[in-house]
Inverse folding.
């Protein structure tokens, strides 16, 4: 289950954003090996000022970015039916940075939003891009998930990654 919270008015320009995110996160959840069918994810749609504050407070980087992920601490032991839903964590996406990137890369807004939602979700379940091997694995999975959504490879026109 994905809860989308809109905290910046600029997202009102894109009324389909919540549905786009729901679809992207569902596709990502179906594509990972772990059992996350009943898990919860919160996605906050913010602006550059909001994500800059988060980036500064949590990562010590005083500038906006497109997406941040905050994996939830997982309880000890195995999840059992009847337990509270498993919380995977939170994703924050900044409108202005995301819009600028989509425009600069000549990508439809919903394609880029889907990519960032998938990217953020994969961070919540343990994927990362801190080294070349991990980045290649994560990008290949992102590309596969997006292809299932009918979205072209987001890395096709890039010489480098992240």
């Amino acid at each position: 289950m994905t809860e989308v919270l809109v905290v910046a008015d600029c997202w009102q320009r894109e009324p389909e954003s919540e549905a786009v995110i729901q679809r992207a996160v569902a596709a990502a959840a179906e594509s990972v090996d772990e059992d996350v069918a009943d898990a919860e994810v919160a996605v906050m749609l913010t602006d550059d000022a909001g994500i800059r504050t988060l980036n500064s407070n949590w990562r010590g980087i005083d500038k906006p970015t497109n997406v941040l992920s905050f994996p939830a601490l997982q309880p000890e032991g195995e999840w059992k039916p009847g337990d509270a839903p498993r919380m995977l964590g939170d994703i924050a996406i900044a409108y202005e940075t995301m819009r600028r990137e989509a425009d600069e890369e000549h990508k439809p807004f919903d394609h880029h939003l889907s990519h960032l939602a998938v990217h953020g979700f994969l961070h919540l379940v343990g994927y990362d891009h801190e080294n070349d091997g991990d980045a290649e694995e994560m990008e290949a999975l992102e590309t596969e998930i997006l292809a299932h959504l009918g979205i072209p490879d987001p890395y096709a026109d890039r010489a480098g990654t992240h």
User: Anything to note?
Assistant: The mean pLDDT is 90.
